[in-house]
Design a protein that fits this description.
The chain has seven helices and twelve strands. The protein is of the alpha+beta class. The strands form three sheets. Strands 1-11-10-4-7-6 form a six-stranded antiparallel β-sheet. Strands 2-3-8-5 form a four-stranded antiparallel β-sheet, with no helix packed on it. The chain has a two-stranded antiparallel sheet with strand order 9-12. β10 and β11 form a beta hairpin. The longest helix has 34 residues. The radius of gyration is 28 Å and the shape is elongated. It starts with 6 loop residues before the first helix and ends with a helix.
Length: 314
């Protein structure tokens, strides 16, 4: 006796096949490169950096993508942050030609690692870009930036004054820290922060393939006590964007064309030295005895000095 599929089952099969086809077609090259004519927020799943594939426009008055996130959010949640970016970058016909042009630059590789020792390190991100053969017009008519957004965990922070010094030295075009910028708080009392860095890609765009290296100075907060003597902090994958605007600025209609870049970078792990909880009582007792001894010596010295003054006076 033959079997027949329920109509709902047929619908599920068709949907599954369509989703599979979309996944396969988007897995090679850029997921949204097949529809570059569509301007606006185009989400077709998550990239290797957990960032939705976003393409759209922003007014030129927006210096940073993430500056206003903490105006309405008290803490950093990755899902809310990505929703915020997708809503912020909106559709606009004024930047349609710019959006089509930014597909001529593609991120082909991203390598990340830490250098340095102890509680002060540099997070190094090496990005390799490829360009299409007809990208010369982009160099002639547009100014383009690469934007790196690092969502830092509570255990580390970036010093905004240090980043501003790097901007003054023209290492970065711009750099900002948003969220918890209190540099003195320990890890247990701090919140997450966001670092946004802008790098110029215009001077290298005539090459078919080129590399951009970003060294972000990071500092560890005082971690909680741990029996192993180390606290492990994991820095997740960054959010990467390319944005371009015409060199011939018109304030009334000036818009950035913004596009997220697909990256397959791994997480970076930082082993931060911390105190051993088993030694807490020993350290507390030694500290107390040392403080008590020093206090007694100060009192004794003051008494002896006072007696000597009296003897000299008599």
């Amino acid at each position: 006796m033959g079997t027949s599929c329920h109509p709902a089952a047929r619908v599920l099969v068709v949907i599954s096949i369509c989703c599979l086809c979309n996944f396969i077609s988007g897995s090679e090259g850029d997921p949204v490169d097949s529809c570059p004519e569509k301007v606006g927020t185009c989400t077709v799943g998550h990239t290797g950096s957990n960032t939705p594939n976003i393409v759209g426009c922003l007014p030129c008055s927006y210096n940073y993508l993430t500056a206003s996130y903490f105006d309405n959010h008290n803490s950093l949640l990755d899902s809310e942050f990505h929703d915020f970016l997708a809503e912020k970058i909106i559709s606009n016909d004024l930047c349609k030609s710019s959006v089509n042009n930014i597909y001529k630059i593609r991120l082909s590789d991203l390598n990340r690692y830490l250098i340095g020792e102890g509680s002060h390190r540099h997070l190094v991100s090496t990005m390799r870009f490829d360009r299409k053969l007809d990208a010369s017009k982009l160099q002639d008519d547009y100014f383009c930036e690469t934007i790196i957004i690092e969502r830092l965990p509570t255990g580390v922070f970036a010093d905004p004054f240090e980043l501003q010094h790097l901007v003054d030295q023209r290492v970065f075009l711009a750099a900002g820290v948003f969220g918890d910028t209190n540099l003195e708080l320990p890890s247990a009392l701090s919140n997450r922060s966001v670092v946004e860095i802008h790098m110029d890609v215009g001077s290298n765009i005539e090459l078919k393939s080129y590399e951009t290296v970003v060294q972000l100075p990071l500092h560890a907060r005082y971690p909680p006590l741990d029996a192993s003597g180390y606290a492990q902090v994991t820095i997740g994958k960054p959010d990467l964007f390319l944005r371009c605007r015409p060199k011939d600025l018109q304030k009334e209609t000036c818009s950035w064309a913004v596009r997220s870049l697909d990256s397959k970078a791994n997480n970076v792990t930082w082993q931060i030295p911390c105190g051993d909880e088993a030694l807490t009582h020993i350290v507390s007792n030694v500290t107390f005895l040392s403080a008590l001894t020093c206090s007694l010596l100060i009192v004794l010295s003051a008494v002896c000095f006072s007696r000597n003054e009296k003897i000299k006076g008599s």
